[in-house]
Every structure is written in structure tokens, then in C-alpha cells.
Specification:
Strand content: 15-25%
Radius of gyration: 19 Å
CATH class: Alpha Beta
Bound molecules: adenosine-5'-triphosphate, magnesium ion
Number of strands: 10
Number of helices: 9
Distance between the termini: 43 Å
Shape: globular
Number of domains: 1
Structural class: alpha/beta
CATH topology: Rossmann fold
Strand order of the largest sheet: 6-7-8-3-9-10
CATH superfamily: P-loop containing nucleotide triphosphate hydrolases
Largest sheet: 6 strands, mixed
Order of helices and strands: EEEHEEHEHHHEHEHEEHH
Helix content: 25-40%
């Protein structure tokens, strides 16, 4: 059951493996509402694995630990149930759906989440009428400074890196989750795409919402001021601090930390 006194999101001693190879080796992280957290770390340290495990990707096996959303362990829940609870994971949705427009896809996603939330609180009407949805979408696109023609494009078909990010951020704006976890895996992201992500996060950040940004771009943090920065090395968060930690990394690199925290071979 959801416990409103518990922290919004609490990851405790999380271990996960793929094909018997342990990748996450005891991750601890607490996120309260209103907080923006950045997770940085060298290639292969387990950042995307963490995002995948939280999204419920069945390829990964959780072997120990928990991830609780207001006290409720989410690791056994289906990805769509996680979404209904108010957790947004950037890549839980199909990347290309030929013949489905942005607008239609978003309406389905939003309707599903809203209906489930409404049903939980005993309201059977739920959902969102098409006209109401269009109004909401226009409002969000204005907030995010997106062109209205974007809504009629087919989902991710021929989208540039920046447009994919725009679609993701628009989806985030419409779903209004309590917690958003964004994995900036695509090393091909140009500065425009980074701006889309950062402007979007800044426009949507509120005292009610928490963000986890997984990135190795110190550049992203020039545009978004996280409250906390965490460094992941070899499947553990080895250091946490404020924004200054990201700057320190930029200057010194990971070598010193790696030498200090890596398992000897
Ligand atoms: N599906 C998979 N199959 C096999 N090995 C995997 C898989 N996913 C992750 N791994 C391994 O787990 C380790 C951590 O990978 P992960 O993608 O989580 O790192 P990362 O911190 O996100 O790296 P990057 O900064 O390059 O995005 C790597 O050694 C990787 O090869
Ligand atoms: Mg990654």
C-alpha cells in the first residue's frame, strides 16, 4: 500500500544481474518530491542498467534489495502499473509505431494512466474526451514551446534525435508523473536535443515532482541545476554531493574515483 509518510522513492541495496553477471552491486538512493537528482559515471558503470531495472525490463534479474515508491515495492509490478502509480520511465514505450500519430499515441497513453488513476479513487468516468485532450496537448506544447504541427507526425518515424527527445518530453508533460527517470543514453545527442531535454525539465520541475537524470554530459548540467549529483562506479553509487561534484568531475575525470572505488582484479 502507498504510504504518504514514506519517502517518494527509495532504492535500497539493489543488486541486479544479466546472464549471471552482476551489474548492480548494492545501489542506495532516496528521492523526495521536488528534488532533481543527476546520476553520472563512466561508460559501463551500470547507469542504464539501473534505469532498465526500474522500468521492469525482464532481461535483468533483481537478486537483492528493493525500490519503493511511497513505501510500495515496484519491482514486482508490470511497467504499466508503475506508470499508473506515477512513475515515468523515458523508454518504457515503443520507439516506432508506423501509422500512429503523436497525438493519437499520446491520447492513448494519457487515457490509460488517467483511467487507472481515476478507477483507483472510485471514479468510473476517468479518461479524457478527445476535445479535452487536444486542449491539454495544446497547452503543454505551448509551455514547451513546441510547434503544433508536431502532433500530427507519425510516432518516431523519421524523427531526429532532437524530435525524439521532444516527443519524450511532451509525453512527460501530459502524463504528469510524480517521478520521472530519464536516461540520456544516446551519445549522438546534439546540443539542440540537450536543450530540449533541459528546457523541458526546467519547465516541468515543480515542488511535487522528482527527477532522476542519468547522463554523462556535464553539459546537460549547465542547463539544469540538480539538487544532488551521484557518481556511479561499478554498479554502486560511490559519491554524492551537490552540483559542484559534476564540475569537479569535469575537471578531474573519473580516474581518481575509479582507482579508489573499483574492485581490484
Ligand atoms: N543486455 C545486456 N546484455 C549483456 N550485458 C549487458 C546488457 N546490459 C548491460 N550489460 C553490461 O552491463 C554493464 C553496464 O552497462 P550499462 O549500460 O548499464 O552502463 P552505463 O553506465 O549505462 O554506460 P554508458 O555510460 O555507456 O551508457 C556493461 O558491462 C554492459 O556490457
Ligand atoms: Mg547508459
Amino acid at each position: 500500500m502507498v504510504d504518504s509518510n514514506a519517502p517518494m522513492f527509495e532504492i535500497e541495496n539493489l543488486h541486479a544481474s544479466i546472464e549471471d553477471k552482476e551489474i548492480l552491486k548494492g545501489v542506495n538512493l532516496t528521492i523526495n518530491k521536488g528534488e532533481i537528482h543527476a546520476i553520472m559515471g563512466p561508460n559501463g558503470s551500470g547507469k542504464s542498467t539501473l534505469a532498465n531495472v526500474l522500468a521492469g525490463n525482464p532481461v535483468y534479474e533483481v537478486t537483492e534489495g528493493s525500490a519503493r515508491f511511497y513505501g510500495e515495492d515496484i519491482l514486482e509490478l508490470d511497467p504499466d502499473v508503475r506508470a499508473q502509480l506515477g512513475i515515468f520511465l523515458a523508454f518504457q514505450y515503443p520507439t516506432v509505431i508506423p501509422g500512429v500519430s503523436m497525438a493519437n499515441f499520446l491520447r492513448m497513453a494519457v487515457t490509460n494512466v488517467r483511467r487507472a488513476r481515476a478507477e483507483k479513487s472510485g471514479d468510473t468516468t476517468g479518461g479524457l474526451a478527445p476535445r479535452e485532450f487536444r486542449r491539454l496537448m495544446k497547452e503543454k506544447m505551448k509551455l514547451l514551446k513546441m510547434d503544433e504541427s508536431f502532433a500530427t507526425r507519425y510516432l518516431n518515424e523519421g524523427f531526429s534525435g532532437g524530435e525524439k527527445k521532444r516527443a519524450e518530453i511532451l509525453q512527460l508533460a501530459l502524463l504528469e508523473p510524480s517521478l520521472a527517470i530519464l536516461d540520456e543514453t544516446d551519445s549522438g545527442l546534439d546540443i539542440d536535443a540537450l536543450r530540449v531535454v533541459s528546457d523541458g525539465v526546467n519547465a516541468l520541475a515543480s515542488p511535487e515532482m522528482g527527477f532522476v537524470l542519468i547522463t554523462h554530459y556535464q553539459r546537460l548540467l549547465n542547463y539544469i541545476k540538480p539538487h544532488f549529483v551521484h557518481i556511479m562506479i561499478e554498479g554502486r553509487i560511490v559519491q554524492s554531493g551537490g552540483p559542484e561534484l559534476a564540475l569537479e568531475l569535469e575537471a578531474k575525470g573519473y580516474e581518481k574515483l575509479r582507482a579508489e572505488f573499483a574492485t581490484p582484479v
